[in-house]
Amino acid sequence: MPLPLAADDPLVAAARTAATRAYVPYSRFRVGAALAGPFGVICGCNVENASYGVTICAERTAVVSAVAAGHRAFTRIAIALPDSPPGSPPTAFMPCGACRQVLAEFVGPEFPVAIDGLGEYRFAELFPNPFVLPGSR
Ligand code: THU
Fold first, then answer.
1. Ligand 1, atom 10: closest residue by C-alpha
2. 48, 59, 110, 125: which is the annotated catalytic residue?
3. CATH code that applies to domain 10-126
């Protein structure tokens, strides 16, 4: 069960702002992510493409932006999906499987995942059995 989020949670606010930058001419479905760490906060939004399959999600945009900037230690992520109507089922707010696997590369089971409109989950609640390459860690 997720923990409740404060209405003024600053990381969630950053994720909402990031969602306003989404490039979504195809789905019109904006997503924002804000990743926190010792570096501060790095945000991502979904960036779609005419070749639909190469679209990148907000969460992965945030992770790859942080890694490209030299940061691999993360303390929390917030995700905002403002185009899911209030009252939608939890599935309308959840990060996709690809993003969970990418997060699993850098975070552990206790990593907090704040989902706007739902609450704060432990990463292991969302993705209990990530793939880990044998011998890699
Ligand atoms: N999307 C994300 O950005 N993150 C997710 O975890 C789920 C889906 C985006 C991809 C696409 O641009 C749009 O939402 C609709 O699938």
1. 57
2. 59
3. 3.40.140.10
